[in-house]
Structure to design on (420 residues):
């Protein structure tokens, strides 16, 4: 957006009004690829109307390369993650009727605070503190698609956070492919702990939330910083993927079951009200029934507040795709997903019901169509987009405001609050 605006382009509200349509794609797993291609073909219909240039950016071009040009002749420009700086000049060349190359450079670029030109649509905003990943999990394409880890300078992140705060953002959600190794590649080796402490000094930011914390890189010092700063939500996204030691080794995750147990115990000891989210994968090569039962039993014992589960996809180009031991059928993957989601639903409902009778800070995000609960928001225990929401009974509440509410009811994923 920053490059486009600096290049003299402007947004329109609807695709039928656009002379240029840009589709930014994900290609991490098969469903993302299918969704991206479906969207490209859908938007290509506008070339029969006002659209003159259809561009595709992001990971899809990087993953599939030049054959994509033959497969999608409707597309005029392909730009990979490492070539965003070419987007504006190549669009202008196409406008002049000139030819442009297929861009497939190795990703080395980083976003800058001045690129954040559009205010978010509400009181919450994501802030990406690093790009790329150097963990090389055996099932994952991200290092190949997005490049190795590259951390943004802390002063640049601070400037973007201040800009977001000035535009009315109350909650900043820090993201990266792995937030917990932030800064190790920068001069002076700034840390995530230091970055969090600095961001906490921005007066008008009320909440700071941390996602994508790799279990192998959680430090005691990070837990201490989270415990000591009230602005940092008592919430941590800790994607474990699995718990069986043999599978964790095959995944190249860099930790064992005992490490995960130790981390969770330390977190809950330091911050008893911490809400923990995790992600797990089923059907990885070698996941026998016994190993799956180990995962299921662990999840039942630990009782995560929020959980996502997805099947293993044998993505071409990954080491895991070449593993031939104990392949798991899609039917069994689906059965295992069902068992986990069914168990987690019961856990989530019980944990939510424990919130009844408590007072919680609630960030008001918008209105509902319900006269009983006319507002919707989230507590500190609920991350945007991925967790449940809190329905709020009250009058005259301001969207973007943070109010104290009394939790009066709960269901499997959502809470219901009253403002007194």
């Amino acid at each position: 957006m920053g490059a486009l605006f600096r290049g003299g382009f402007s947004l329109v509200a609807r695709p039928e009004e656009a002379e240029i349509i840009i589709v930014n794609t994900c290609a991490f797993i098969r469903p993302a690829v299918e969704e991206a291609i479906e969207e490209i073909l859908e938007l290509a219909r506008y070339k029969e109307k006002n659209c003159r240039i259809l561009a595709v950016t992001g990971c899809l071009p990087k993953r599939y390369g030049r054959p994509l040009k033959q497969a999608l002749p409707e597309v005029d420009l392909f730009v990979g993650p490492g070539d965003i700086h070419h987007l504006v000049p190549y669009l202008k060349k196409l406008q002049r009727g000139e030819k442009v190359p297929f861009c497939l450079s190795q990703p080395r670029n980083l976003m800058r605070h001045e690129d954040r030109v559009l205010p978010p649509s509400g009181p919450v905003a994501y802030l990406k503190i690093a790009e790329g990943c150097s963990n090389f999990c055996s099932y994952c394409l991200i290092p190949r698609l997005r490049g190795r880890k590259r951390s943004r300078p802390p002063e640049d992140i601070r400037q973007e956070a201040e800009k977001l705060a000035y535009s009315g953002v109350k909650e900043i959600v820090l993201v990266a492919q792995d937030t917990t190794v932030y800064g190790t590649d920068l001069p002076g080796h700034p840390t995530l702990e230091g970055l969090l402490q600095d961001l906490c000094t921005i007066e008008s930011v009320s909440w700071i939330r941390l996602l994508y914390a790799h279990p192998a890189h959680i430090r005691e010092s990070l837990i201490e910083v989270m415990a000591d700063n009230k602005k940092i939500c008592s919430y941590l996204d800790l994607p474990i993927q699995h718990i069986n030691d043999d599978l964790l080794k095959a995944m190249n995750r860099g930790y064992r079951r005992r490490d995960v147990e130790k981390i969770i115990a330390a977190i809950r000891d330091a911050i008893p009200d911490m809400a923990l989210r995790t992600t797990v994968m089923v059907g990885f090569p070698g996941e026998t029934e016994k190993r799956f039962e180990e995962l299921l039993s662990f999840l039942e014992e630990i009782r995560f507040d929020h959980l996502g589960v997805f099947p293993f996809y044998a993505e071409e180009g990954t080491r895991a795709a070449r593993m031939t031991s104990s392949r798991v059928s899609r039917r069994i993957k689906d059965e295992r997903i069902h068992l986990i989601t069914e168990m987690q639903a019961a856990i989530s409902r019980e944990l939510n019901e424990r919130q009844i009778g408590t007072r919680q800070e609630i960030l008001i995000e918008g209105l509902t169509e319900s006269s009983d609960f006319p507002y919707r928001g989230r507590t500190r225990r609920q991350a945007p987009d991925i967790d449940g929401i809190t329905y709020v009974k009250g009058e005259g509440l301001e969207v973007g405001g943070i109010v104290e509410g009394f939790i009066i009811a709960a269901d499997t994923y959502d809470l219901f609050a009253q403002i007194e």
